[in-house]
Amino acid sequence: MACPLINLLFFLLTFLTFSTLAQTSKNISLGSSLTAVKDDNPSWPSPSGEFAFGFREVAKNGFLLAIWFDEIPNKTIVWSANRDNLVPRGSKVELTVDGEFILNDATGKRIWYTQSAGSGVAYASMLDTGNFVLANRSSSNVWESFSYPTDTILPSQTLNQNGILYARYTAKNYSTGRFLLSLQLDGNLVLATTNFPQDTPNEAYWSVQNPNTGFRFIFNESGFMYVTSKNGSLLSTISSSMLSMKDFYQRATLEYNGVFRHYVYLKNTSSSSGRWHMDWSTSSYEPPNICMSILESRGGGACGFNGLCKLEDQGPTCQCPNGYSFIDPNDELRGCKPDFVPQSCGEGSREEADLFDIQELQNADYYGGDYADFREVSEDWCRQNCLDDCFCGVALFRTGQCVKKRLPFPNGRIHPNLTGKLLIKVGKRNPTVNPGGGANTEKKDHKTLIIFGSIILSGSGILNFLLPLITYLVVSRSYSRKAKVSQNHPVISGMNLKHFTYEELKNATNQFKEELGRGASAIVFKGVLASGNGKSVAVKSLDTRVGENDLEFKAEVSAIGRTNHRNLVQLLGFCYEGEHRILVYEFMSNGSLAGVLFGESMPNWYQRRQIALEIARGLLYLHEESSSQIIHCDIKPQNILLDDSLTARISDFGLAKLLRIDQTLTMTGIRGTKGYVAPEWFKRLPITAKVDIYSYGILLLEIIFCRKHFEAAAEDEGPMILADWAYDCYKQNKLHQLFKNNDEAMHDMKMVEKYVMIAIWCIQEDPLLRPNMKKVTLMLEGTVEVSAPPDPSSFISSIL
């Protein structure tokens, strides 16, 4: 009898849900509009007054066109039209006399619209369900907000197959975030990451399996959430709360931290005591512990690299281990950075070990990223072994096992069920670092001077005795250094890299036969390392006839060897033997961005947006987050490589210019590639990181339109300079003319225009007008508003 009773209950609940949908509404006539103002924004309420539609200010002079609960103190937002593109004061939403529903910013520029023109729209209405609709004269809905949810669904709302909720980015940032809830085409309801952290592939961390039959996810008015098949039969119950709509407000929200929660709010509650309460039941489908469920195979986990996730009463929280701090305090999911200079592996690394200590953390671990595993050892042995090992950043000790991990640490979590103890290596203090990477060199030199001064002051007799000894030591040390340089495997201080012999690389590349590409001063070959289990590598042989080749080699090794970021090509090792200067990189299977971007099968619009963002994040790391600021100086499609999953990796640091932490500009000769070179090179102005911003802007235009920055004259046309053409088309609202058979981007012209505006800001002739890479990244992510750019100047065409 149990199954018939359950089905009877289900159909009664379904009947109750849809029998209560009929309601009165206040029609909003054609020609009506609302304008965003600082305070007391006008709105369109639902008949009961429980919901309202209008503008909400969520950032300084940044407004959402939104729907919210209007009779509770905090005015909880449940839907927005422009979550990724806030509008300023003075922006206007209008239901035109033609039936179009359009949001324009204060300058009259269209930001969002419903694409309902020509559908016979007669009026709009804010319903008591929280659904905003456009209806025709027959009162049939032509468009409704319920069909385009953001991070929340409401009672009587459904998600069909391929319907998606996207979490907001942070608690206070409403733009599209890093987690999604989707009823997939395979019928399964899943929670997954959204190419984050570090733009990794989506990874599901919770699911309700309904293979090939799940058709609709329903949230009814009694708080009953369930999945049905196409014929309406019940497949899975997600939440079975039995609540009265008369007594409670309800919503189900995918939170910014990846947790999907059902909330209730008792109506008629005083403002002092009213708040949302989580009401989630049915133990089979409890919301997951995000900290333990998200174990990114290639990303940083729930709290980003080096972060630690802990489940508190109010949900998961992120924290940094002692000695580390958040990369961005306003965005804790980005991870943590060390507040000390990590130990180098160069000469003197053993002495550096005295500058580090171990911090303990119980019931915690970092899942993945192991490089050494020892059994039947003591905790003291594990602790000392990590301190002595320059690669070790943290060791996990549990019941005689010592597992060592290097920076950065993925998937950090704290939980009572974790029996291990983390031994985290941190700096006792922040030592002075010299350009060669050795820590505390200044202190050593100072100590040497004190000793030497003491000897001099101790008397002429001792001095006469020591002078021959000192002379001998100096000469011996000089000789030793020369001998070291002549060795096959010289040590380059501070480099955690493998030293290859020329013979090893000759064998790995089959006598340097398979050429991958060549530049002005180097040829790149494909190879397979004998010690790498068949792993392919890219072997870059520098031309020793080039005058500055040694300097370029040292710059590239120094720059890349100290970097560690997902969007940079990893340097695995080098050969510095005789006249041979060779670099060994990880192999990128999809070649350069140029080959993909301008080839026959270009990446789709979504992939191109991801590639643009990945390049920006790589440059942001070089400019602001690496230990030494690095200006790349040659950003172009040929220097962006793509791995198996089309993740963009910045390569070729041969022209990189390193700056000290306190240095902001430098003077140097012209570097880079024609067409991508910033104007200040030609004006012999000081060079800053803004030269990379300019090159990135040109590259971004190429990524958007899959066109080269310069195209030679056709028979009936003049030469095409992409930057000039893009700005002209932007001003004339004709950007679609730049596309070649790109329907996907053509249907997302609002985002295309935004990306073009970012590119135009980047290629401003005046470096002071260009944004820094941090702001560029935030604009691409939708966190920062993109304002209308000025004319970048005709100087662009004059330098080609």
UniProtKB/TrEMBL annotation:
Signal peptide limits: 1-22
Annotated EC: 2.7.11.1
Main location: membrane
InterPro entries, alphabetized: Bulb-type_lectin_dom (IPR001480), Bulb-type_lectin_dom_sf (IPR036426), G-type_lectin_kinases/EP1-like (IPR051343), Kinase-like_dom_sf (IPR011009), Prot_kinase_dom (IPR000719), Protein_kinase_ATP_BS (IPR017441), Ser/Thr_kinase_AS (IPR008271), SRK-like_kinase (IPR024171)
Keyword Membrane: yes
Keyword tRNA-binding: no
Entry binding sites for ATP: 540
Compartments, record wording: Membrane
Gene Ontology MF annotations: ATP binding; carbohydrate binding; protein serine kinase activity; protein serine/threonine kinase activity
PROSITE patterns, per the entry: BULB_LECTIN (PS50927), PROTEIN_KINASE_ATP (PS00107), PROTEIN_KINASE_DOM (PS50011), PROTEIN_KINASE_ST (PS00108)
Family: Belongs to the protein kinase superfamily. Ser/Thr protein kinase family.
Protein name: Receptor-like serine/threonine-protein kinase
Biological source species: Pyrus ussuriensis x Pyrus communis
